[in-house]
Amino acid sequence: MSIQESFCPKCGGPSEGGLCGRCRVEQTEWLVCDPRIESVRCPTCGSLKYKSKWTDTDRDQQETAEELALGAVHLHEDVRHPDIGIATRDMSPNRTVAQVTVAGTLYDVPVKGACTIEIAWKKEQCDRCCMFAGGYYEGVLQLRATGRKPDPFEIGRGMAIARSIEDAMQEAGDRLSFITRTDETRDGLDIVISSQHIGQRISREIVKELGGRVTTHPKLMGEKDGKAVYRVTYAIRLPCYQKGDVVVLGKRPYEIREMVSSTMKVFDLTDGSSRVIHEDCSGRLLGNIRQAEKALVAFLDGDIVGILDPKTFETREFPAPPWLAFSEGTEVLLLRDPETERFIFVG
Fold first, then answer.
1. Which residue segment(s) compose the domain that 60 sits in?
2. What is the rounded distance in angstroms from the CA atom of residue 141 to the CA atom of residue 133?
3. Is residue 13 part of a domain?
4. pLDDT tens for each residue of 69-126
5. Residue 308 burial class via C-beta count within 10 angstroms: exposed 0-12, middle 13-18, buried 19 and up
6. Beta 315-319 vs 304-308: how paired, if at all?
7. Could you tell me if residue 205 is inside a domain?
8. Greatest CA separation for the chain
């Protein structure tokens, strides 16, 4: 290496060729900060707008300010091991100032710098809140039942399933799929939804858990951006019986375990056998196992079991069903048959 190549041509200091690291740093604009940035937040739900897209966030204003300030700092590509410090100060409800300090190395020379960034906070109603406030909807789920009104349990489960799917879709980023409102009617439950996507998911999950079937009835409402716009009615028809119902068919009590299409999977509460039979809505409903009473087993005598009536506290004797194990002093679950005044053991 020659003498000329060993020294910086500008400062005369040692160099491995050309300008030394310090002189290169002096000629390099290594830190640039945007002096002012804007952030648009929805005052209703707190979501943030980036360019033209809204995003849900759980960060508070200070965390958001620090993230925005960090995004406004631009470092030269050759800066190594950057250490960035940000301190924010609210000057007014609509303005925050971020003081930024940066340290690192550039061309093996330690560098330090600082800048000030002003953050302007703006408020704007987001797309979802505008749709929600305007009552926007693309469909209605109508929860009904065959030959009866859905009971409070089914209506409650329908609402819970709908809310659970709404939460899951919101967390997955599908912001425009939401429940506009729910209305309990004399015939059942109406769930008004903002998109066909959420309508399909809710109706499918309700039928999966509660049984029945769903049919869709679209209605053309017009066009948007050259595409046909439909509003869809999702008619959910629950079966005549629900899971856990105890029904007398003929002279035998059965527990409904499942109803699929036009068949019923039932459990014979007399002998403990399971079978699949054709859907029969003519049975006499005794109740649901959720409504079963607890009763104490007073004694066992061969095939006879003595039960302490939880209402009258009298001991009553019944044939013990072979599928249920009894022992004195334990509790069993039962339903009352008002016609025969006997107990139907369900567990």
1. 28-123
2. 20
3. no
4. 999 999 999 999 999 999 999 999 899 999 999 999 988 889 999 999 999 999 999 9
5. middle
6. antiparallel
7. yes
8. 116
d(CA 100, CA 184): 55
Give the number of domains in the chain.
3
Residue 67 lies inside a defined structural domain of this protein:
yes
List the structure tokens of 40: 């648009």
- Angstrom distance (rounded) from CA 100 to CA 98: 6
**What is the spatial distance between Cα 220 and Cα 86, in angstroms, rounded to a whole number?**
54
CA distance 136 to 134: 5
Q: What is the DSSP letter of 16?
A: S
Residues 339 and 289 in one domain: yes
pLDDT digits (tens, 9 = 90+) for 11-61: 867 777 777 878 888 888 899 999 999 999 998 888 898 888 898 888 888
Helix (H) or strand (E) holding 308: strand 304-308
Phi, psi for 145 (deg, rounded to 5): -135, 150
Distance separating alpha carbons of residues 109 and 20, to the nearest angstrom: 10
Phi-psi region of 12 (alpha: psi -120 to 50; beta: other; left: phi over 0): left
Q: Look-up: residue for tokens 């924010």? A: 88
> Are 207 and 250 contained in the same domain?
no
**H or E stretch at 38:** strand 36-41
Q: Same domain, yes or no, for 333 and 276?
A: yes
The Cα 318–Cα 341 span in angstroms is: 11
In a domain, 230, yes or no: yes
